[in-house]
Design goal:
The structure holds 2 protein chains of 2 kinds. Chain A is built from 12 helices and 10 strands. By secondary structure, chain A is of the alpha/beta class. In chain A, the strands form 2 sheets. Chain A has a 6-stranded mixed β-sheet, with helices on both faces. Chain A has a 4-stranded antiparallel β-sheet with strand order 2-1-4-5. The longest helix of chain A is centred in the last third of the chain and has 17 residues. Chain B is of the alpha/beta class. Among the domains of chain B are: 126 residues, P-loop containing nucleotide triphosphate hydrolases (Rossmann fold); 37 residues, no CATH class. In chain B, strands 6-7-8-3-9-10 form a 6-stranded mixed β-sheet. Chain B has a 4-stranded antiparallel β-sheet with strand order 2-1-4-5, covered by helices on one side. In chain B, helix 7 links the parallel strand 7 and strand 8. The chains are: A alpha/beta, B alpha/beta.
Chain lengths: 289, 284
């Protein structure tokens, strides 16, 4: 894609959340406001990470993006379609795919390629086209070699990549992942994150990525921090992670390099701001060593 | 009173087409008072291994003894030895089932055949231990709690059994950093105040490096490495990578800084250790 075209594309909104609140009734009959007056725009081609403690509203927010939930107040629109408009429901879902935490809950078939084909089959896609989509999706997630395997015998990371392939086969423009690596081992986590980045870079997919792992969040273009149903902050990873203390107070982790840089700065050492990665800390220290 | 594994081999589905040897000739002594971390990639055999520690699985070959008593024996003694080893599985909140929190925690102690007063006392102690107020929570349903609270109820159920050994399989999975710290503070207190021997299976290398006194790396059904966590993270980086496991973020950073020619101490475990080491090298 030409640079100019990419820049225009990136400025077009994919999802717009406007003064949106979501309330529900709990078991005791009390009204609980899970989201309170949220404003957020996610542009086409962006990779946005959402972080926040358990119960901060991240998952509730994400479930609005493909109409698993509807706003109690305000609006959510996807490519200009209001999620409250029932006629647009399937239109919206064809653009926004979702991947959840537990891969075991998302796999339906006994053979990998049949599982990936499940979505497009239900959309009534012609068989030849399904074949093409399944092959492409398995290529993108690097699981082509396993297409005849039984999903339940794969590792967690492999299963999660199958779940992602299943979403890809629906040809969405945007993929929303809700803690996709929470149940995986370090190798599985790396594979899944690498796959998601490939979707973003090579397939120009818009990505919304919810995580508790800061080493994953810091690879996003933009980070949204949530607390008690509000958006507390949003910004580039460097800008978010320089606020070491406020993140820790929130009960969130900070990348090790950012924390070390912050402590050195407080002890009076001249260290540049905005350090997030080990490499950036190494560069800063080598400069002044 | 150690747990001793003597040449333990375990084969799943023996005699079927799906036969798979999950553990091969593991010999290992777990001493009282240790805090052992177990790491290994998915499928390495670590979960199979820990299920041998309280007799959920019995070895295909070899034996597991607690205080000299073979866990596979069908005697009352062997049963009591199995009860000494408490097991907290992954996502233990999925195993809650009773109508009230107090009843759920009482389930284990009731099966031990204790008196009603003793059971009640243990439930109170266990709830107190995990920070759930007895008066407020005892008669509530466990299913109306948050994920972190449900997990604490599940852990309280195991604590109420008063195990001498506690095996925890990924106790912090899916919790946010604050929830993770709460759970680990409780486990640390069990270890320090009540002298419980802890065996922690985790993918989180940071937790292991901060808490464990000994680390076992399991690969391909064998014990690949056995030693002090920081020694293993310092000296066996490549071996660990081959075994599909990571080193903690702090060790990754110190190794990287050394590569860049900054002689920061690789024995650093916490962020403060790294900061102190850098400050000892640099002038303000």
């Amino acid at each position: 894609m030409e640079l100019e075209e990419m820049q225009t594309r990136e400025r077009e909104p994919m999802i717009v959340v406007s003064r949106m609140s979501h309330s529900y009734e709990d078991e005791m009959g009390n009204q609980v406001k899970a989201l309170d007056q949220i404003n957020l725009t996610i542009n086409k081609g962006e990779f946005v990470a959402i972080i926040g403690t358990n119960g901060s509203g991240k998952s509730t927010l994400a479930k609005h993006f493909n109409v698993l939930l509807e706003p109690t107040e305000g609006t959510v629109s996807v490519l200009g379609m209001d999620t409250k408009d029932e006629e647009k429901l399937w239109g919206i879902r064809s653009h926004v795919g979702m991947v959840f935490q537990n891969p075991d809950n998302q796999i339906v078939a006994a053979i990998v390629e049949e599982d990936v084909a499940f979505g497009p089959e239900n959309l009534g896609v012609p068989p030849a086209e399904i074949r093409k989509r399944v092959d492409k999706a398995l290529d993108v997630v690097g699981m082509q070699a396993y297409r005849h395997h039984a999903p339940h015998l794969l590792s967690g990371g492999q299963k999660q990549r199958i779940a992602i392939a299943g979403v890809l086969a629906m040809n969405p423009d945007c993929i929303v992942l809700d803690e996709p690596t929470a149940m995986l081992d370090p190798m599985g986590r790396k594979d899944v994150l690498k796959t998601v980045h490939a979707l973003h870079k090579e397939e120009h997919m818009t990505v919304v990525y919810i995580t508790h792992f800061m080493d994953e969040a810091m690879t996003a273009d933009r980070i949204v921090v949530m607390k008690n149903g509000h958006i507390l902050q949003e910004g580039r990873p460097a800008d978010i992670f320089k606020q070491v203390e406020s993140l820790k107070e929130l009960g969130l982790d900070v990348p090790v390099a950012a924390e070390v840089a912050d402590k050195l700065r407080k002890d009076g050492y001249a260290i540049a701001e905005g350090i997030v990665t080990d490499k950036e800390l190494g560069d800063a220290l080598c400069l002044s060593y | 009173m150690p747990i001793v594994l003597d040449s333990v081999t375990y084969t799943y589905g023996q005699g079927t087409p799906f036969e798979k040897q999950a553990l091969t000739g593991i010999s290992l002594t777990i001493n009282e008072g240790e805090f052992i971390g177990i790491i290994g990639h998915t499928g390495s055999g670590k979960s199979t291994l820990v299920q041998h520690l309280n007799g959920l699985l019995h070895p295909t070959e070899g034996q597991v003894t607690v205080n000299g008593i073979n866990l596979a024996d069908k005697t009352e003694e062997a049963k009591q030895s199995r009860h000494m080893v408490g097991m907290v599985f992954q996502y233990p909140e999925h195993q809650l089932f009773e109508e009230t929190i107090a009843k759920d925690i009482a389930f284990g102690p009731t099966n031990l055949g204790l008196t009603q007063e003793e059971i009640e006392q243990r439930v109170k102690d266990a709830m107190d231990f995990v920070g759930l107020d007895y008066k407020t929570y005892a008669d509530r349903s466990p299913f109306h709690l948050s994920g972190g609270q449900m997990r604490r109820v599940a852990i309280a159920g195991v604590v109420a059994m008063k195990p001498k050994y506690l095996v925890l399989d990924e106790p912090s999975a899916g919790l946010d950093p604050a929830g993770r710290e709460e759970i680990f503070a409780e486990i640390m207190r069990l270890h320090k105040e009540q002298g419980v021997t802890v065996i922690l299976v985790s993918h989180n290398m940071e937790d292991i490096s901060k808490m464990a006194t000994r680390l076992l790396v399991i690969d391909d059904g064998k014990v690949l490495l056995d030693g002090k966590p920081i020694d293993i993270f310092m000296k066996y980086r490549e071996t660990l990578q081959k075994a599909g496991v990571d080193v903690p973020p702090v060790s990754q950073l110190t190794a990287y800084l050394n590569q860049r020619g900054l002689p920061v101490s690789e024995e650093a475990i916490t962020v403060d250790d790294v900061v102190a080491s850098i400050e000892s090298l640099k002038k303000r």
